Amino acid sequence: MAISRDEKQESFPKVVPPVVLSWPDAIRESQMREVERVKSKLPTRKKKKKKKKKKKKKKKEVDEYDKHKRNLKSSLGRNQNGLVFGLYVETPTPTTTTMTTTPLA
After folding, report:
1. Separation of CA 17 from chain center
2. Alpha-carbon dihedral of residues 64, 67, 69, 74, nearest 10 degrees?
3. Which residues are within 8 A (CB) of 29 and not within 5 positions of it... i.e. 6 or more apart?
4. Residue 84 near residue 78, CB atoms below 8 Å
5. Element containing residue 85 per DSSP (H, E)
6. Helix (H, G, I), strand (E, B) or coil at 77
């Protein structure tokens, strides 16, 4: 059964003619478009970056003995087998010796 030409045309969506604006509306529309174009061409202001405040580092109180130990540990080396070698000498606490003076005769 053949489809007639009238039925074929009805199945396609009808093309709606563009809306014709009245003269003042058309002018207003074109002016709005022009303003939008000008706005898009204007250079945009860049936002100023906020400077980050530097955090002050707190000074840790370090004992001289701990500091000495750390320095010795860092100076230790490693041999080919990965074993730690080097001298680690703990400083003994100084002892006070009393010297006896002999009178000269």
Report:
1. 55
2. -160
3. 21
4. yes
5. strand 84-85
6. strand
| Model confidence pLDDT, tens digit, residues 56-82 | 777 766 667 677 677 666 555 555 555
| 19 torsion bin: left (phi>0), alpha (psi -120 to 50), beta (else) | beta
Q: Which of 91, 89, 93 is nearest to 76 (CA)?
A: 89
Tell me which residue of 68, 70, 72 sits closest to 88, measured CA to CA. 72
Locate 97 and state its tokens. Answer: 């010796």
- For the cut 80, the answer to whether the pLDDT of residue 99 exceeds it is no
Helices (H) and strands (E) in the chain, counts: 3, 2
Say what the alpha-carbon torsion angle 36, 37, 42, 47 is, to the nearest 10 degrees: 50
The amino acid occupying position 47 is: K
Beta-bridged to residue 84, according to DSSP, are 78
Distance CA 34, CA 82 (A): 76
**Separation of alpha carbons 2 and 11, rounded Å:** 15
Q: Which of 97, 76, 100, 71 is nearest to 86 (CA)?
A: 76
